[in-house]
Amino acid sequence: MRIIRAARVLTGRPGEVIADGEVLIDGATIVSVGPRGSAGEAGEVVELPGHTVLPGLVDAHVHLGFDATVDPVTRHSAENDHHLLLRMAENARKLVSAGVTTARDLGGRDFLDLALRDAIEEGLAVGPHLVAATRPITITGGHCWYMGGEADDEVAIRRVARENLRAGADCLKVMASGGQMTPGAPPSWVPQYTTEQLRVVVEEAGARGRSVAAHAHAHAAIRSAIEAGVTTIEHCSFFTPSGHRYDAKLADLVAAGGTYVCPTLHGVFWRSREVLGAEMLDDWLSGVAAMREAGVRLIAGTDAGFVSSGVANRTDAFVASLEVFAEAGFGNAEIIELATVRAADACGVGEVAGSLEAGKRADLIAVAGDPLTRLSDLRNLALVLVSGRSVNQTGVDTVTSSAG
């Protein structure tokens, strides 16, 4: 048994802060959360004065194995699976070094995300718990076709969905619209699937108790995703040939349906703003703020793994992505909520992660300072636990403790 004590404990439940609090852990599980002394005795006590303990962060949209080396003509990559898997493991280590203890990987090739997920759970690799979607479902030559999930009609969509689920996918990802990073694919403002075809994905996932994340930039694709009943909409940027054009009525539909939206605000926002121009990026950010005002359930996710404006969207830049929410006018407490308990619920792991409660996984972080006052204090990591295992920027570590 181990007790972790700090100046304050944020449980993850909105507005709940325990001053001079402590968390009692038994192996991989939280036993209790309360004020100092409430846990009784333990064989190990970690004292962290001046620190804040809070749930481990949740990145709801990453690509640990994004491969930008695919030749659009030969349809082959210069990076073999062995090398890519090693790079994915390093990306996972960097992700957890930023305090992310759960991440949803929304697209990779050859089921390598499943291999990495299982290796992390077995203790063979260092990283967050992974919720893996495997191959995104897309049209032939569509956005991210090279990950292996091409399907053009309902029969093919069912086949790819079932193959992914049989392999062990935790959720399904479907490219409801085109994207910006696949040469020759439909652009972002063009839908790739009809509402009926998206319903097929939802049906296949639902039959196995799984959720669906829909990549949707275009207005029509966003509407179809809502009508089909997907769990989360990724990006939801209201993209048109002339840029971002927020649609208040469509946002109201998203809010009314309770669909989560991951706007994929990322840490290279300011660099992208310099390269692409202030108007485009400010329109995007104002749309995110407008969705919040409309009551849309927003969650944090970085789309880590891609390259934006010549700058890599690194897996260890999660806090920078949260600072973009602050730029859009979100308060620190709300930002922490959408990066913990709300994101965990959206990713389907809310019963075991996202908040500090008895019976949940011992996924937590401790930071020097108070992130409710200064969001940047989330960078001051003193402790990261993933199912009770202690990790830091260099891998596995042992926390200095005293007997209690």
From TrEMBL:
Domain spans labelled Amidohydrolase-related: 52-391
Hydrolase recorded as keyword: yes
A single GO molecular function term of this UniProt record: hydrolase activity, acting on carbon-nitrogen (but not peptide) bonds
Superkingdom field: Bacteria
Record-linked InterPro entries: Amidohydro-rel, Metal-dep_hydrolase_composite, Metal_Hydrolase, Metallo-dep_Hydrolase
Keywords: Hydrolase
The keyword Hydrolase is annotated on this UniProt entry: yes
This protein's name: Amidohydrolase family protein
Organism (species): Nonomuraea mesophila
Lineage, broadest ranks: Bacteria, Bacillati, Actinomycetota, Actinomycetes, Streptosporangiales
